Amino acid sequence: xxxxxxxxxxxxxxxxxxxxxxxxxxxxxxxxxxxxxxxxxxxxxxxxxxxxxxxxxxxxxxxxxxxxxxxxxxxxxxxxxxxxxxxxxxxxxxxxxxxxxxxxxxxxxxxxxxxxxxxxxxxxx
Amino acid sequence: xxxxxxxxxxxxxxxxxxxxxxxxxxxxxxxxxxxxxxxxxxxxxxxxxxxxxxxxxxxxxxxxxxxxxxxxxxxxxxxxxxxxxxxxxxxxxxxxxxxxxxxxxxxxxxxxxxxxxxxxxxxxxxxxxxxxxxxxxxxxxxxxxxxxxxxxxxxxxxxxxxxxxxxxxxxxxxxxxxxxxxxxxxxxxxxxxxxxxxxxxxxxxxxxxxxxxxxxxxxxxxxxxxxxxxxxxxxxxxxxxxxxxxxxxxxxxxxxxxxxxxxxxxxxxxxxxxxxxxxxxxxxxxxxxxxxxxxxxxxxxxxxxxxxxxxxxxxxxxxxxxxxxxxxxxxxxxxx
Lengths: 125, 336
Hints:
Low-confidence stretches of chain A: none
Helix content of chain A: over 70%
Structural class of chain A: mainly alpha
Mean pLDDT of chain A: 91
Number of strands of chain A: 0
Number of helices of chain B: 9
Number of helices of chain A: 7
Shape of chain A: globular
Radius of gyration of chain A: 17 Å
Strand order of the largest sheet of chain B: 1-2-10-15-14-11-12
Structural class of chain B: alpha/beta
Helix content of chain B: 25-40%
Largest interface: A-B, 9 and 18 residues
Distance between the termini of chain A: 45 Å
Mean pLDDT of chain B: 96
Low-confidence stretches of chain B: none
Largest sheet of chain B: 7 strands, mixed
Oligomer: heterodimer
Order of helices and strands of chain B: EEEEHEHEHEHEEEHEHEHEHEHE
Shape of chain B: globular
Number of strands of chain B: 15
């Protein structure tokens, strides 16, 4: 079935399966190793960045949309994508300036809303 | 050998100090557990009207101490020493509570073994003739411990099956040279045992060898065995650690039977309450012993109880640097 925006509705299924699979990897890391949630985040981000740098993450994004973009591996891929794009444009320095090209908004939003929620809410146990 | 010492590391008090008053305060989760009715105060929430959980912990420690003094029917000025400890850096809960109480103060750090450690020391001070009244107290708080030792509470990290839940609460007791009440007859001071375990998500497993060492030393020193006690109580080994302890002492020919229980498992309904393998923290053994066990002794359920409280002496920094977890266990005997 075609959607109004021109996409296929089966994308939702792919997004669910791919996003779920990435999260399942994270859960397996926590359950079967002594690594901390911090380690798990870094492993998935770096894996995403490597895959992004080798042009392997792009097909996954096309296939599963938000299912590949939303997990932290998508964040890693975006870091690599931004750095490589800027490197092409302005040389080696672009590797550094491009890191936040596509991820800057996500970070700014996280900081802003994190602060907002911290101001109005208290953690429960 | 000193006159009041038995064997390697046990003290037998010549005139056993008496526990003349106790005070216990527990948090909201503990207040829904099976022992809830045994505690003096149950908090409505973790904050307890304070701006930070650290302030809340100080408040409950102070409250437990005041209740214990009240129950002992003495004045604060009659207490010779206040011995207290908790889990936080620089044992701030104990320090700040002592600021309010203004009783000569000894700050103790034995991690979760603090309850038994303070009883042993208070017993020695009183039996040695240095004091008539000693107030012992310790506290822990889920939120303060969680953020110091593990993760910010806001992160809401998943627990592992071996993870334990830090008890929110405080327990205090006044020991006296004379009076009526249960008596402290023996104390066995533990040595630090470290089998090289590094998993901070399995503290019970790390502490079990220390508990086994102290338990076996106690039996060897006193010539007693598990059958000589109505109740043998470990502080916070929880489900995995207490099974490990049973195996470790079994290897040495000692069988822990139905009279063996663990405070961390008694305090919660581990099936319905989400507390992982069971409770932990200084308050765990303190509130169960001072709140529940002493009340049962009064009723006549138990005549003599052996409390073995275990503590893990690592810091988050030492763990990050790859150090293993050194553990200690102290034991005290309480007789009705």
